[in-house]
Amino acid sequence: MGLKTADQYLDSLKTLKVEAHVLGIKTDEPGRHGLVAPSRQAVAFTYDAAHNPESRETLRAVSHLCKDEVNRFTHLHQSTEDLVKKIKMQRYCGAMTGCCFQRCVGLDAANAIYSTSFDCDRKHETHFHDRFRDYWSWIQKEDLVVDGAMTDPKGDRSRRPADQLDPDLFLRVKERKSGGVVISGAKLHQTGMLNSHEILIMPTMSMRPGEEPWAICCAIPVDTSGLRYIYGRQASDTRKLERDTFDVGNPIFGGQEVMTVFEDVFVPEERIFLDGQVDFAGTLVERFASYHRQSYGGCKVGVGDVLIGATELIARMNGAEKASHVREKIVEMIHLNETLYCCGLACSSQGYPTPAGNFQVDLLLANVCKLNVTRFPYEIARLATDIAGGLLGTMPSAVDLNDPEIGPYIRKYLAASPDYNVLDRMKVLRLIENLTIGAGAVGYLVESMHGAGPPAAQRIMIGRQAELDGKVARAASLLSIPEELPSS
To answer: Mean per-residue pLDDT for 225-240?
Structure first.
């Protein structure tokens, strides 16, 4: 099958028998729900972009598995050029949708599992890699969306998985049956889960001997028996349910996060890619994290482009675009955003081939990239809030704007530069609100902080990857200090 269009993707979701709890109500057609539909449109954009002459070269790649042209969101990186194109693709999609487009986690998980399963097979004489090659070739041919599921609830953070009062607080193999395993637990913060075809499950952290049940990596369809989906809240999310989408800020696209419960779910043997090999659980987590930390140097930059553009536009609409302090703040926003992009490109260009053949990003630079992402979008949002002004938090609603009695007052008193329409000015303010304190802030700010791990996780990896002993040795050699120095 060739690359799907957006309409073909949306039609394919209709064939899945998925139930979800959204605001306390069970629905068997989540795609028709007003909270879900905008996020589904964001994923659909990634399909049409692969057919758009403007972006098709960036959104397509030739697979070394199925030998066909595939959507780059299913591609296993074969060069540093592929890693760089991934970042460019993510920036483009972020800039065109102004939100999270939800396909990066599955892409990053696939590349991590591909190399980790290969290494595991070489050491343990398992057969995970061939299984995964077959599985992922099928994903590419069918052009499917895969949700990468890593984050467990974790329960009491002072306890290891086996020490939790409830062992399901880390997803685990609960039972073994002929032809497969039964898993139990939950995955939190699952971005785009209700817009996916498949779930690719990974352990949430390094595991130790005795924690084999929790060292599981596998794949299941989203409509597998025993799955429960509970939709997560976003700030101002019920605005999406209003008849007039004016107050949403982003009237077309949106994000989505879901709590996914695995209630005695059976996984067939051919869909298991790690099963109790605790020595490779940490390897998988580390590789996935590095790919996903790289991703943030693309997607968040694209959304940042939207916020910077909206901030410059509101400055012009306010008649303040020539003020020196506004110019300085806009330049600072650009500087911060492009610095994030530089980090994403740097860790990509310094990538290297794995023994499995796909390319891994530079781990140190990927963690530097993500650590900057935990800071810079917040500063960009602060500056946008500063320039936009107090109307960001006090502007009247679309209902009042459309009221024949009250509406004229709003249009009269919210007028600014005569070169711009009052309604358009209000739209821009709502978009800035969406990205800084509204529903879009989940994908741009909260995700920037906690997605792919919080700042402490990046600091740990930076400390490990920095080769401090080598730096000490170079400094010592300049001063003719003896080479034999104790290491830390």
So the answer is: 97
